[in-house]
Amino acid sequence: MTATETSPSETGDVEAGINALWRQFARAPEQRLRDRLVLHYAPLVKYVAGRVGTGLPTHVDVGDLVQSGIFGLVDAIEKFEPERGLRFETYAMQRIRGAILDDLRSQDWVPRVVRSRAREAERAMERLGARLNRTPTDAELAAELEISVDDLRDLYGQLQLTSVVALEDLVAVGKDSGSLVDTLPDDDAVDPVAVLVDQDNRRQLAEAIAQLTERDRIVVSLYYFESLTLAEIGKVLGVTESRVSQLHTRAVLRLRAKLVEQAGV
């Protein structure tokens, strides 16, 4: 065994130590205990920040995303309720991602013209979806926007800035609340269906995803549920990372349009 490898017994010792630390923190939430938990789970922040940072403008520093994510991690540690049965990693990654996205939104880092074009594309998808009773193709959407398909794909490239959103933002369209943590099941949870899952939100999200094209469904599944990067998805689909970014943007816009339609807003 090399110096960098960890034996099963060592892994078990680490897990037992973290469980003991959680119990101590639950009894007495002292800062020193919280800081030890932050240090242990810090790699989660780097991972989430790296994924969120994919496709962002070059002036957005991943280090800044990590800093924002740390606040999300601290918030997750302080608010985590182990008795609910959800794995902490699952809960924390959503809090970390949310903190990063909140910070990005507060900086108003998306140009106004890009936001305007995103709304225009979403409204066009809503109109076409209502008329056709299905998800419009790129050619149909381009015709509705009175641009070429190539121009539409260039537009997707610009709109990728607006598509860096958590799925809870999509679920919450037209609702007062709707966290992904509360709408998607956790396989390791004690009783996720009874305790955590909002069936109506899950149903609407599932229906919206089912109406995507097969390739868009694959992108959404691999990116949000299998945690693959855009580059890794590109290898799976046999296309460039840039093309995957376009597909991801298109999928998010289509999901938003479908959920807005379902919510009647």
Automatic annotation (TrEMBL):
Residue ranges of the TM segments: none
InterPro entries with a match to the protein in the record: RNA_pol_sigma-70_dom, RNA_pol_sigma70, RNA_pol_sigma70_r2, RNA_pol_sigma70_r3, RNA_pol_sigma70_r4, RNA_pol_sigma_FliA_WhiG, RNA_pol_sigma_r2, RNA_pol_sigma_r3/r4-like
PROSITE patterns registered for this protein in UniProt: SIGMA70_1 (PS00715), SIGMA70_2 (PS00716)
Entries under Pfam families matching the protein: Sigma70_r2 (PF04542), Sigma70_r3 (PF04539), Sigma70_r4 (PF04545)
Domain RNA polymerase sigma-70 stretches: 64-77, 229-255
Keyword Acyltransferase: no
Keywords of this entry: Cell projection, Cilium, DNA-binding, Flagellum, Sigma factor, Transcription, Transcription regulation
Entry function: Sigma factors are initiation factors that promote the attachment of RNA polymerase to specific initiation sites and are then released.
Protein family according to the UniProt entry: Belongs to the sigma-70 factor family.
NCBIfam families documented for this protein: FliA_WhiG, PRK06986.1, sigma70-ECF
Protein name: RNA polymerase sigma factor
Organism whose genome encodes this protein: Amycolatopsis magusensis
Source organism phylogeny: Bacteria, Bacillati, Actinomycetota, Actinomycetes, Pseudonocardiales
